[in-house]
Design goal:
With 360 residues, the protein is α/β, with parallel strands linked by helices. It is built from 10 helices and 17 strands. Helix content is 31%, strand content 24%. A hairpin with a 2-residue loop joins strand 16 and strand 17.
Length: 360
């Protein structure tokens, strides 16, 4: 497969421009370094150990994971400094977490003392300790303790559990990362970060050590990285990018595209591609066309993408290849088993997406 032309790749296929990807990785790393903040990229976007290893090689402090299964895939590839930015609940998963802790410095988010107690018991039974971080609700209203006293109460309880190492706090300003007006985005992000940093200071004043204060997303990276009191950021989509983050003005290159093929042109103004909802998600909007003028995506069905042509003289025909830009990279990538990594128009390598589908 290596060395073939992009045009010879069978479709539908997920492409990544390796040069653009590496420039994105370097740009974000340099930005974090400039503020003395640790970069812990989120692998929930790319789910690929090759990309994670590139991020670590460029200077990333560690890797963030959304799920235990993702962390297991990263650890299998030799990545040891892992944060699971989610709760690991239930005896089956907690037993797996304890096994993961044997081979890595994994940190897991908690927001409930009963869950912390269960993790502690499993860790103690295995003769080890598990690193934990408290997730604080900074405005997204998903998981997390409330800022201030409720977080302090949980931290004090966790410190008493012998199977745990308490490391600090994390929050996610995900409710703000797609606000298009930058001034308003900055206001909402800083409001969220203020709650997180103030809670960290409250814990420290009450003699609870807080080593890590972790937050951030691609849409808020400039604000979060520069905010005093944040020690690490969990940005993810910047590496490959997508249409949604293009729309809010995030200045990284579009490294990710979906290669498709024209399979039908039933009329002069209608073209059908071989890529539907089973290979490209649309919760943030329909995919965009790369470098194709005079056409627009009308819609996706299960296996097809329908285009409307404004120019009936357009010469598109069955067998022609067209690239789409997904609007949401994270969920689109999760539908695929591999990236075709390009240098120019040649395939350099095929990278497995080892953590795809690891929802457990």
């Amino acid at each position: 497969m290596a060395g073939i032309s992009k045009q010879d790749v069978d479709t539908p296929a997920l492409l990544v421009d390796a040069d653009a990807l590496e420039r994105n990785i370097r740009k974000m790393q340099d930005f974090a370094n400039g503020y003395g903040v640790n970069l812990r990229p989120h692998c929930k976007t790319h789910k690929c150990t090759t990309i994670a290893q590139k991020q670590v090689a460029a200077g990333a402090f560690g890797i963030t994971c959304a799920k235990l299964g993702e962390a297991e895939a990263m650890a299998k590839a030799g990545i040891r400094n892992l944060l699971i930015a989610n709760q690991v609940v239930g005896s089956i998963k907690i037993a797996r977490l304890a096994e993961l802790a044997r081979i890595s410095g994994v940190i897991v988010a908690v927001d409930d003392v009963a869950n912390g107690t269960q993790i502690s018991a499993a860790a103690a039974a295995a003769g080890l300790k598990v690193n934990v971080i408290i997730e604080v609700n900074t405005g997204m209203n998903r998981c997390g303790t409330e800022p201030g006293q409720p977080t302090l109460k949980l931290a004090r309880a966790l410190l008493k559990l012998k199977g745990l190492n308490f490391r600090g706090l994390m929050g996610y300003e995900g409710h703000a990362v797609n606000i298009r007006d930058f001034a308003e985005r900055k206001r909402v992000v800083e409001e969220a970060l203020g709650k997180l940093v103030a809670t960290a200071e409250l814990l420290r004043k009450n003699k609870v050590p807080v080593e890590i204060v972790s937050a951030g997303g691609t849409g808020s990276y400039k604000i979060t990285t520069a905010y005093k009191g944040i020690t690490e950021t969990q940005v993810g989509s910047y590496a490959t990018m997508d249409g949604a983050y293009q729309d809010v003005g995030v200045e990284f290159e579009q490294a990710l595209t979906l290669l498709t093929m024209v399979v039908s042109r039933p009329t002069k103004t209608r073209v059908v591609l071989d890529a539907g909802k089973k290979v490209c998600t649309e919760e943030f909007g329909l995919p965009r066309l790369k470098d194709l003028k005079g056409a627009r995506v009308r819609g996706l069905s299960e296996e097809h993408c329908t285009l409307d042509l404004s120019d009936p003289k357009c010469k598109l025909k069955p067998g022609d290849k067209i690239e789409l830009i997904p609007t949401h990279g994270c969920t689109t990538i999760n539908l695929h088993d591999q990236f075709f990594a390009l240098r120019g128009d040649k395939v350099e390598a095929v990278w497995p997406i080892e953590a795809r589908g690891r929802a457990r």
